[in-house]
Design a protein that fits this description.
By secondary structure, the protein is α+β, with helices and mostly antiparallel strands. The protein has 2 helices and 8 strands, in the order ββββαβββαβ. An 8-stranded mixed beta sheet has the order 1-2-3-4-5-6-7-8, sandwiched between helices.
């Protein structure tokens, strides 16, 4: 499926008196428009994205949480601490662990192209993932979004469960937090 997306963001003032906080940009209101060029179908999504760890209480209100770090365990930990978030993204360099929905589906993505992704890249991908999910599109096709390669798909159990059932893509290593290179 081919979709076109337009993403805009507006910083949210996180202080009671409306002044710009010192962690400017940590909380943003995102508006995403998805367009199917074949049918002309339009879908608009608005959500709150929070860059963790936020120095305020907005993190528990975020629809999308993004945090630097590594591994599916860190995405699970963040999701458990803020259960209202539909998408949790933990990233390090070209790799991102995306935890999707209340059932904890986990995708391991790697940015396409040489070098490190540009600043804000994983934040944008996480917002696109939110829009993709709330529009009713399949999470399994999400890996092809925004110049990313799906490296592994890990099916997690409930967020508080210690027992996880994991399914790996053919290109995944035996360690789900360390996908192999192609």
């Amino acid at each position: 499926m081919k979709l076109l997306a337009v993403v805009s963001r507006t910083a949210v003032s996180t202080t009671a008196d409306g002044r710009t906080p010192y962690d400017r940009g940590a909380v943003v209101r995102v508006r995403t428009v998805l367009v199917n060029p074949d049918s002309g179908t339009l879908f608009v999504d608005e959500h709150v994205r929070v860059r963790a760890p936020a120095r305020n209480r907005w993190q528990v209100l975020g629809d999308v949480l993004v945090e630097p770090g590594e591994g599916a365990w860190q995405a699970d930990r963040l999701a458990v601490s803020c259960p209202g978030a539909l998408v949790v993204a933990v990233h390090h360099g070209p790799r991102c662990w995306l935890r999707l929905g209340p059932d904890g589906r986990m995708l391991v993505l790697e940015a396409g192209g040489p070098g490190q992704p540009p600043e804000g890249f994983w934040e944008t991908v996480a917002s696109l993932a939110h829009s993709w999910l709330v529009s009713g599109l399949s999470a399994s096709a999400l890996g092809s979004v925004a110049g990313c390669h799906l490296r592994a798909h890990i099916s997690s159990g409930p967020p508080c469960s210690n027992r996880r059932s994991r399914h790996r893509a053919a290109s995944a290593s035996s360690d789900p937090d360390r996908p192999t290179e192609e």
